[in-house]
Design goal:
- This protein has helices at residues 3-20, 24-34, 40-55, 57-64, 69-79, 85-91, 104-112, 120-123, 131-138, 142-149, 166-172, 205-208, 217-226, 243-252, 271-277, 323-326, 329-346, 369-378, 387-390, 398-404, 416-419, and strands at residues 155-159, 179-180, 187-190, 212-214, 233-236, 257-261, 283-286, 302-308, 350-360, 382-384, 406-407, 412-414, 424-431.
- The chain is of the alpha/beta class.
- Strands 5, 6, 7, 8, 9, 10, 11, 12 and 13 form a nine-stranded mixed sheet that branches.
- A hairpin with a 6-residue loop joins strand 2 (179-180) and strand 3.
- The protein is globular, with a radius of gyration of 23 Å.
Length: 432
């Protein structure tokens, strides 16, 4: 397919997504099934266009002064891809499989309009109802922060120290353009261009042998700040597919007791194979069975309880750009209740002197600092460990990290703009 034909396909797909209100991933899959002549490069390029449109949906419509699928795509090319009028016009020449030529109004919009006077939710591309929440956290910088959350994320990997070392794995992934991550001493990063296909990490020998796992650097840092130690009893209370469980196991060097569980047993399905491949032998996976309390034998004996709390996922918008447009105010209230419940569940599991690591992939203060304050008020035996102490695991980078991330009395907030990671909040609470 030519670049112009790919653009036509993207316009068609955006119209389908808007009219049928279906997730972008589903629309892309159905389109690929119906257009089998499209090669993998074509599908990757069209996917890139779709995700970029969803990242810049509001600002593109504002720039073009029109809310059609075509305007969304054209505005995105100007705002996200940085194309000038001549480049866009060359793609829209009306030729075979190409979009129709630009109208006079479209040419005028692409050359004369800007986002200078756009309201913050439009310039930052997020739902209007979230504006007061983001303003509470970022103030006048919320547009810049939200714009960074709309950019394409790199592919981050964590080196599993049970299977390998970063200095040895890095040269073996040089063909993918891998580099060391800025903060995590365990991380590798692969930058991805606008039309780039995700590299076949799962086919790499280091992945097959368990030496690397896909994990955003912010998630790696959250696990590091939890500071699991060899010989401890550690509980991953919201283990899900096991990303942080694997990181905790590596920190423990295979020594001690690690228990992984999750309220939703379906989320645990991939964890068994991942533990085996990563060489983890000290982890017990406990799958929920009805209303049975599966941690009833753990009474004030855990050194560390890690809570990767259910949240709105606002920190992951650059990986899930369509999620922010599907998010509704009621979702926040549900998540706040879930978070309070899992914190209350964790409290009696922790032994005196033990700790809770509370983690979210959200940037909203209601899910982060406010939850921590409410928990401490109800459980005065817990206090927040000073954030600068948790960042000590970064050694010589701790001071630089402290200048980049947002620090509060309750913990650290990482964002794409400040730390180059997904949005993550981490608070470590110690029991007296």
């Amino acid at each position: 397919m030519t670049p112009a034909a790919r653009l036509s396909a993207a316009i068609e797909l955006i119209a389908t997504i808007d009219s049928q209100r279906i997730p972008a991933a589903k629309a892309l899959k159905e389109w690929g099934t119906a257009h089998r002549y499209a090669g993998s490069g074509d599908r990757a390029a069209i996917s890139g266009l779709i995700w970029d449109v969803l990242r810049r949906q509001s600002s593109a419509a504002y720039l073009m002064d029109d809310d059609s699928a075509r305007s969304h795509v054209l505005g995105m090319l100007r705002l996200e891809r940085g194309m000038d009028l001549a480049t866009i016009s060359a793609l829209c020449d009306g030729g075979r499989f190409a979009p129709e030529p630009l109208t006079d109004a479209e040419q005028a919009a692409l050359t004369s309009r800007s986002l200078d006077d756009a309201p913050a939710p439009i310039a930052g591309d997020y739902p209007d109802w979230l504006d007061p929440y983001l303003a509470k956290v970022f103030g006048d910088e919320r547009v810049a922060e939200a714009t960074a959350m709309a950019s394409r994320a790199p592919l981050d990997l964590r080196v599993n120290t049970l299977r390998g070392k970063r200095e040895k794995v890095l040269p073996r992934l040089s063909h993918l353009g891998a580099t060391e991550t800025p903060w995590s001493p365990l991380g590798l990063r692969i930058a991805l261009g606008a039309d780039a296909r995700n590299p076949g990490i799962h086919a790499e020998e280091d992945f097959i042998k368990g030496a690397i796992e896909v994990q955003d650097e912010g998630s790696q840092l959250a696990a590091l700040f939890a500071a699991a130690k060899p010989g401890e009893q550690v509980i991953d209370l919201c283990a899900g597919a096991g990303g942080k469980t694997l990181a905790l196991a590596a920190q423990m060097d295979g020594k001690g007791r690690l228990i992984a569980t999750d309220h939703d047993k379906r989320q645990l399905a991939p964890i068994h194979e991942r533990l085996s491949r990563s060489g983890v032998h000290n982890c017990e996976v406990r799958t929920p069975r009805g209303e049975e309390e599966i941690l009833s034998d753990i009474k004030a004996s855990a050194d560390l309880v890690v809570i990767d709390a259910p949240c709105t996922g606002t920190g992951t918008w650059r990986r899930n750009p369509d999620a922010k447009w599907r998010m509704r105010p009621g979702a926040l209230e549900v998540r706040l209740k879930d978070q309070a419940e899992v914190l209350a569940r964790a409290a009696p599991l922790v032994k005196p002197g033990g700790r809770i690591a509370y983690i979210t992939c959200s940037v909203l203060s209601e899910e982060n600092g406010a939850q921590v304050r409410a928990f401490v008020a109800q459980h005065p035996e817990f206090s927040v460990q000073p954030p600068e102490q948790t960042a000590g695991v970064l050694w010589d980078k701790a001071e630089e990290f402290a200048q980049a991330a947002l620090q509060s009395d309750e913990g650290w907030l990482m964002t794409p703009r400040r730390t180059g990671t997904d949005g993550f909040f981490v608070s470590v609470l110690k029991k007296a």
